[in-house]
Amino acid sequence: MPRIAYVNGRYLPHADASVPIEDRGFQFADGVYEVVTIVDGKLADADGHLTRLARSLKELSIPWPVKPATLRFIMAEMVRRNRARHALLYIQITRGVAPRDFKFPKQPAPSLVLTCRRTAFQPAATLEKGVAVITMPDIRWLRRDIKSTSLLPQVLGKQKAAEAGAFEGWMVDGQGFVTEGCSSNAWIVTADGTLVTRQPSNEILNGITRLSILDCMRKLGIHFEERAFSVAEAYEAREAFISSASTFALPVTRIDGKTIGDGRPGALSLRLRQAYMDHIGSTDPVSVK
Predict the structure, then answer these.
(1) Which end of the chain is more exposed for a tag (fewer CB within 10 A), N or C?
(2) Residue 67: active-site member
(3) What does pTM read for this prediction?
(4) pLDDT digits (tens, 9 = 90+) for 44-57
(5) Is 4 exposed, middle or buried (0-12, 13-18, 19+ CB in 10 A)?
């Protein structure tokens, strides 16, 4: 697949794409982003991602760089130009280029960047074994509901997980409750079979994949609770999994080295993964409507 990027009105070879050094995204992480998964040439949950993007922009008082309908067209064009079949489409909007000053520029000209890269989704061996996570203190700011480009705590958490041989890190608040993963939402199935995931608030990013999985559960008649769960409760869970745009629903079989359930991906986790894949499959190719 060719690598074509979009930068402020121009489609460019990825290697030639750049932004000015005084872009506020580079200087202050003054921007927001979304990642949309492309599966079999289809943009998964595009409506949800654009709705959340609009909310993030509003919360940070960043104007749209183009009309939402125009962005939808650019997204579809990026799929076409990159000949994307299985890929990740990254969308970033910053407050734009201005002399370095903490205050907002009086007349902002927001920057829009889209990139696309091929990705390989989880192989069968990973789904058969599940993945490991470790827990760590949640040191992020208190507006986690905004999908900001300020991701240093998550970078540190991901690195710590990788050094421990884990796939993901679960962040834990001061009361011992899991908030979410460094780049995913966290789920458990309790010993009595109840599926639990933390309720949406400023303390987590309300994942678009998370919302779609909840919708799948409603259609399947699966009971769930949106509430905080502790690390101790997670250790005793029957099942666990993570969800994100790039992992879908991915079973977790070890937390901090402790085996979850019987050490194999749980039936409910796998059922929800398949339900989500079926949900994606119902999307029209390159449709963003």
Answers:
(1) C
(2) no
(3) 0.95
(4) 999 999 999 999 99
(5) buried
